[in-house]
Amino acid sequence: MYIGIDVGGTSTNAVLLENGLVRNSATVPSSADIITSLLEALEQIIANVSSESIERIVLSTTLITNLIAEKKYAPVGLMLIPGPGLSHGYYQYQTDTYILSGAIDYRGRETMPLIDDEIDQAINGLNAKGYKKVAVVGKFSVRDNSHELKVVSRIKDLHPDWHVEMGHQVAGQLNFPRRVVSTMLACATRDKYAFFVESVQEALRSRGISGSVYILKADGGTMPLNKVTGIPIETIFSGPAASTLGVQALIPPGETSVVVDIGGTTTDLALILSGQPLLSSKGVPVYEQLTQVRALAVKSVAVGGDSLVQRVGQEIKVLPERLGPPFCLGGPMPTPTDALRVLGLAGVGDAEQASEAMDMLGSPLGMSYSEVAQRIIDLVVDAIVQQIKYMFTQWEQEPAYRVWEVLQKRKERPEMVVGVGGGAAGFITQIAAKLGADPVLPPYAPVANAIGAAVAIPTLQVDLRADTERGFYTVEQEGYQGKIEKKRFTEEDVLLLAEEWLKKRAGNHGLSNPVDNPEITRRDVFNLVRNWSTTGRIYDISVQTPRGIINYIGAKGGCSDA
Amino acid sequence: MPKKTGVIFFPAFDWAISPTHPEREERLLYTRDQIFEEGIMDLPQIHEFAPRLATLKDITRTHFCVPQVQNQVTEAHLIAAGSVMQLGDSVVSGESQNGFAIVRPPGHHAMRVVHGNRGFCNINNEAILVDYLRHQHGIRKIAIVDSDVHHGDGTQDIFYHDPDVLFISFHQDGRTIYPGTGFTSELGGPGAYARTLNVPLPPGTTDETFMYVLDNLVLPVVKDFQPELIINSAGQDNHYSDPLGSMRFTARAYADFTKKLKPHLAVLEGGYAIETALPYVNLAIILALAEIDYTNVKEPDYVPGKFKESPEKVAQVHRMVEHLSEIWANKAQVDVPKIFGTGKYYRRNKFIYYDTDYIEEKQKEQVRMCPDCPGYLSIASQAERGHRTSVRVYTISIPFQACPSCQCEAYDIYEQAKKQQEYEFVYLQDKLTDTYWTYAKNKRQEWITEGQVE
After folding, report:
1. pLDDT bracket for residue A562 (50, 70, 90)
2. What is the mean pLDDT of residues A144-162?
3. For the CA atoms of A257, A409, B126, B349, what is the dihedral angle to 10 degrees?
4. Most buried in the list A175, A547, A550, B199, measured by CB within 10 Å?
């Protein structure tokens, strides 16, 4: 049996899946302590289940999000090696930052050496200010990590107790400023994450649960819950990924749909294109700082069931804030939920109070309460529809760097609008109508996020770049840099090497099935020609395990006991 | 919010002229690495646009491709041209303050008539953009400044008789480098005198002289011309490390040039020092366009004072700048009949060599010296391809500014040329109505724009 638990900001959902059916589900209010919420929900769903039958648990939590939002971590100092390029004044990260001399170029060659005295001065400076956490990041360190290694070895000599993170191990893609932020956040969160891991493992052990435990990442993949594997920062924003995977499990495979998760004051949107959740092309911003953390392409609209509705002059406006619950539930001001109540699209709260709320807005404008209600619904629906259209346009306008990519660009529109979350039911039909799609409210929509966690499996990728002229290769995801031993290193050799690394990664990530059919997602070959003769090749190869989920829900015959 | 600098980066990682040709997949690889690692596309001042495809009609508006557009362009060419147009739209609509198309394949050696590839170019991205902007957005006066080490002979050819396009090219002296043209005496046709200016620079010219030419000739002339739009053909092979050129410009100078010229659109042309120049020059140009400090961009091996010029060469350039400035200042007083002769038409013969495709083309160009407009233009062209039979074509072009009488006469000439049966193909470009005709003798067929009428 599989378990999925999503600890969200307001509530914690858990499901127990057995043979593709939802065997049990639970929702409890989230408390301040994540472990408490998690265990409370867990206890409810495993009440009548033997602990040995639990094969797998996947957690999605706001742990990292909260840590960063509340800045609950010790300060991280920065030692950066940016070299020439963008002016160093651009590297502002609101912490003590030491810029070191030294430079590596795009092919991993040193173009400027480090200066030992500068390194020592920076370490002394950080020490004097009381730092014990340091992120060391160099421009092009993913092409050659020797500068980062050298600085870190000096730090370890002087302060063996310091916690140090290196850019090339945290963020392998090209983008130095994002690598700095990712590395800094990885450094900030690593020990708290380790503490969380220990607590969860202890709690599960004491309940006799020995199945494997994973944590959900922002890209919808999973990583094993242990202290050493993976980068904790990648588990940030796993909530939207959980909902989206849940929807993927609840709708027929292969459909293009938009997931609309309507909450109290925000609506989260995600796209599933031909059955696969869309990943954002770049890393996500974390509190306005751009990172290299990959995530699903999610967009938030500042409207929801509890949004404040006000009359501004002759106009009715839905504002991006919440003053309390809906009027019909004893709140202070009218909300979209009151409008739904009036039109009979929601069953919560008091009908008369809902009408009163509409009258408050409408009578000075000479509008009936049902006219007001319809106007409010239109405003909410239009705001959401506009963002959905924008998301599709943005996806179509992604840059392309190869002829074939430009030629295969296609226009897609959703076939389904799938509603999840508390407020979805009342709006989803109208949103779908405006998009010419079918509205879907799947069974178990309220616990879709926990289902998403339960069915998540890692999509593992290996981006391997080999430079035969220089005789080395790098593996982006592992921060690995190795020598090419073979004299003639062909495209086939590179593919084999990439697949080998993929298998290794799969092992580390607890993927039980061997990687049979790795997908080749990129295969760039560059002939290096110097003085009119070919001197080598650069191969840029990406392989990944097939994307998917562990199973679809209800595929064997609809709903079971809910 | 202040407007952004639009960038289209289209390195065409899956396109090459041939595996070892300078125009191969690797050309923009390290530029990609540099601008991505710097996080340039994330800067709030930058907006990265997706490339788009130009249509066949967009190509036909500018070129006479023999026999047809499809025979001369690949999809990569359509994407390069389309990307430039995309940025053009974005600048004209006011969405972007300026734009940089870092695209390949390049285009500034492609002339009006296209029999094949010359100087790595099949179609002229900047010229296609100019004609598109005129057609789509009604823009009239445009200045093109070509900063490639090679003379922008294709662009010069296309706008030689157009008084509304100022074309300035500075480059390594044509006696020492391909394509062997671009001398100070090439100044435009009778209706567009001094709208073409060429500044051939001696090999070894450094940043200092580059800035002298810029400050004392290029900038004042462009300012005086008062263009609605400035385009920079941003070739980067004047760089000191370029394997094909022999000049001594630095990335920093390219950025200073960009900052001073303030082009609305920069379009990558040549530049084959793919490791030692392009990553730095492209980065510097982007930053300069976006008004971001570029003083920390430098080539790893550059030290100030690395290059020196001989005082005689410098003095020679100063004299040339003075000479060209005078020509520009006195262009209105010039005695046109004395230079170009009298009569209804101005005629000249041209010999064009296609270095990539080994084609030799002979052209008889004729432009009507019309008092009311720049006059329609016709070219009889014959191309020899080694042992294969030569191709003879006749092309007629009616410019955007054409008067009714020129337009009428051009159509008459087209009908006559069709009847003569002397040419394999006869073409008519009517830019006034955006209609393009092709007549094929052997099939006795005629095409209009992209469709077939008979």
Report:
1. very low
2. 98
3. -150
4. A175
Q: Is B109 an annotated catalytic residue?
A: yes
Instruction: Inspect the interface and report whether the beta carbons of A534 and B19 lie closer than 8 Å.
Output: yes
Closest CA to A304 of A333, A326, A287, A329: A326
Which chain A residues are closer than 8 Å to B10 by Cβ? 400-401, 406
**Rg (chain B; Cα; Å):** 21
According to the model, what pLDDT value does residue A514 have? 59
A175 touches chain B (CB under 8 A): yes
Across chain B, mean pLDDT equals 96
The pTM (predicted TM-score) of the whole model is: 0.94
Q: Are B273 and B300 part of one and the same domain?
A: yes
Give which of B77, B94, B67 is closest to B10, Cα–Cα: B77
CB contact under 8 A, B292 and A86: yes
User: Does A247 lie at the interface with B, CB-CB under 8 angstroms?
Assistant: no
DSSP assignment of A429-455, as one string? HHHHHHHT-EEE--TTGGGHHHHHHHH
Tokens representing A345 are 């699209």
Domains and CATH numbers, chain A: 2-69+192-242 (3.30.420.300), 77-181 (3.40.50), 256-441 (3.30.420), 461-544 (no CATH)
Neighbouring-strand partners of residue A11: A29
Percentage with pLDDT > 90 across chain A: 74
Given the residues B109, B150, B161, B264, the one annotated as active site: B109
Cα gap B16→A339, rounded to integer Å:
61
Contact B296 A175 (CB under 8 A): no
Of B19, B75, B275, the CB nearest to A403: B75
Q: Which of A406, A533, A534, A542 to mutate to test the interface with B (most CBs of B within 10 A)?
A: A406
Domain-terminating residue out of B332, B357, B377: B332
Residue A561 has pLDDT above 80, yes or no: no
CA distance B307 to B286: 25
| Domain encompassing residue B442 | 343-452
| CB-closest option in B10, B32, B37 to A176 | B37
**pLDDT tens track for B199-217:** 999 999 999 999 999 999 9
Residues of chain B in contact with residue A397, where contact means CB-CB under 8 angstroms, are 49-50
Span A42-64, pLDDT tens digits: 999 999 899 899 999 999 998 99
CA distance A380 to A360: 19
Residues of chain B with pLDDT below 50 are 451-454
Determine contact: A174 vs chain B, CB below 8 A: yes
Residues B68 and B203 in one domain: yes
What is the spatial distance between Cα A448 and Cα A442, in angstroms, rounded to a whole number? 9
Q: What does the pLDDT look like over A422-471, one tens digit per residue?
A: 778 889 999 999 999 999 999 888 899 999 999 998 878 999 999 999 99
Q: Do B296 and A400 touch (CB under 8 A)?
A: no
